[in-house]
Structures are given as C-alpha cells and as structure tokens.
Amino acid sequence: MTLPTGIRGRLVALALLCIPAILIVNYLLLPLATSYASNSAELDEMRADISRYQRLIKHRPTLQDAVARLDQAKPLKDFLLAGRNQALAAAKLQRLLQSGAERSNTTILSLRVKNSVIEGDLVRIPVEARLRADTKALRDLLYFVETNKPYIFVDQLGINARQTRRRAVSNAKLDVRLNLYGLYAPSIEAGTGVGNG
To answer: Fewest CB within 10 angstroms: 2, 41, 86, 182, which?
Structure first.
C-alpha cells in the first residue's frame, strides 16, 4: 500500500499524528487532571475540617466545665417527676392529677399507671384516667395539666357527652378518657445528671 503524496499525503500524515495525541489527551491527561482537581478539593475540605477540630479541641476544657456545672445545677429537676424510683414517680404523677381534679371539681372514676417506657436518659411514666366533669371543669383540669411543674403531657384525650333532657348543653356531664405522662430521670435522682452525651 502506498501513501498519497503532496498535500493529501501531508494531511494524512498530520491526521495520523493527531489521532494518538487526541487519544493521549482524552484517555490519559484529562482523567489525571480531573482526579487532581477532585483530590485537591477533598484536601481543602480535610484541611478545613482539621482547622475546625483544632478550634474545638482548644475549647474542650471550657465545654467540660460547662457540662460539669450543668450536671451540678440539674436544670431539668423542676420539670421532671421526683422520686427515688419509678413507682414513687408514678405515685407523684397520680397525686398531681388528683390535686388538679380536686381544684377543677372533676371526678376521677379510675386511675391506672401503665408500663413505663425508656426514652434515652428519661423514663416516660404513663397514667390512664377516666374522669367525669362538665366543660368548665375539664377546661380547668387541662389548664392545670398544661401549666404544671413538673411537666405533664397529654398523650390521648377522648370525650363523650352525657346529656339529659333537663340539663343545658353547657352543663352536660362529660365522660373523659385521659392518657397522660410525666418524665422521670433516674440519673438525676442518683446524682449523675441528664444528657451528658
């Protein structure tokens, strides 16, 4: 096979030289440049992370002191149920509900402590109550629950109206099923604090 001569030969020779150059650029140099740029960006990100971690390490003693002060102050203690164990905390919750019922002229038909649930460092102590009250008494009881310390949370509330012909609707007695709970921290009672993690 003979190669063309003249201008056509020069163009073929130029094309034969360009093809390897294009292949080298596309399959060797461009991937290397892309990899270098990607590694450079990752390296910059790692340097920024290292710098941030070094700043945090410098503040570690201050943060440890703040955590120690927080553990000693026990700021959650006023918001959680008190007691040496879960049974005493549940009894405290029952007494709180009875106190709120007395203040609001609500009749407690039944009161039952349900199984507690562990949620991290805290224990949820649920109580199920069946009540009888009129609208105003129920509103007062719910206000008591909402504003109480330690905190009491309403989990479920079911209301059925019991109307008689003689009574007005506003004075109708309501049958109320109320599931509520309080939070108890065994670590606070043991003196180790809550939420160190």
So the answer is: 2
Same domain, 42 and 83: no
Domain of residue 135: give its range. 77-190
Which residue, among 74, 178, 155, has the nearest Cα to 121 in the 3D structure?
A: 74
- Note whether 53 and 113 are same-domain residues: no
Helix residue ranges, H only, 25-104: 30-58, 60-73, 86-103
125: buried, middle or exposed (CB in 10 Å: 19+, 13-18, 0-12)?
buried
**Which of 69-73, 88-92, 100-104, 108-112 is predicted least confidently?**
69-73
Q: Give the separation between CA 104 and CA 137, rounded to whole angstroms.
A: 5
Instruction: Work out the number of other CB atoms within 10 angstroms of the CB of residue 37.
Output: 10
Asked whether residue 165 carries a pLDDT value surpassing 70, the answer given is no
